[in-house]
Amino acid sequence: MALPATIYKATITLSDLDRGVYETLAATVAQHPSETEERLVARLLAYALFYEEGLSFTKGLCASDEPELWLKNGDGRVRLWVEVGLPDSERIIKASRHSEQVRLLACGRALPSWEQQHLPKLAHCANLSIITIDQPFVAAIVQRLERSLTWGLTITEGVCYLTIGNETLETALQVVG
I want to staple 6 with a disulfide (CB 3.0 to 4.6 A). Which of 31, 94, 137, 169 is the partner? Predict the structure, then answer.
């Protein structure tokens, strides 16, 4: 018998001063039994960091041909393809051919070696934006993870401030390429 998904309900008050985006986001996210809490946190962060009206979660790990998040045009074509973690460069190159924009929130313990191996292959993808975040930041969020989340996320001058309860965590958002 397969293990069920774990459901998280998130409310994120987003104040992105760098992009001029101010929204209260509500999301119900399913954590696949094989998904780590770090990946779940990265998906939620990507949702807020790349938020545009219409951006939605996909089937994720259950559908290998879909990103973590996407935004589709009225005709069904993918306008924005969002990945998280450390995907294979071939996956990103393919996405860049089939989507107007591709964004990657790169994070994980192997980030330095991933950058050395994959960034040169991705250099020619003109419609790709990559932001990296530090693994200790993600780990600190995981330690505070609850099934019902209320986050305050402020982005200003390339720094992300995440308020959870009475604590504020911060990390620089490194734009790569």
Answer: 31
Tokens of 72: 């589709």
How many domains are contained in the chain?
1
Range of the domain at 23: 6-176
Taking phi over 0 as left and psi of -120 to 50 as alpha, with beta for the rest, 54 belongs to left
Reduced to 3 states, what is the DSSP secondary structure of residue 31?
Answer: strand
Amino acid sitting at position 123: A
Is this structure's pTM higher than 0.85?
Answer: yes
CATH number of residue 94's parent domain: 3.10.640.10
Is 124 among the domain residues? Answer: yes
Give the SS3 label for residue 35: coil
Rounded CA separation 80/72 (Å): 7
pLDDT digit string, tens, across residues 126-146? 999 999 999 999 999 999 999
Q: For residue 14, is it within any domain?
A: yes
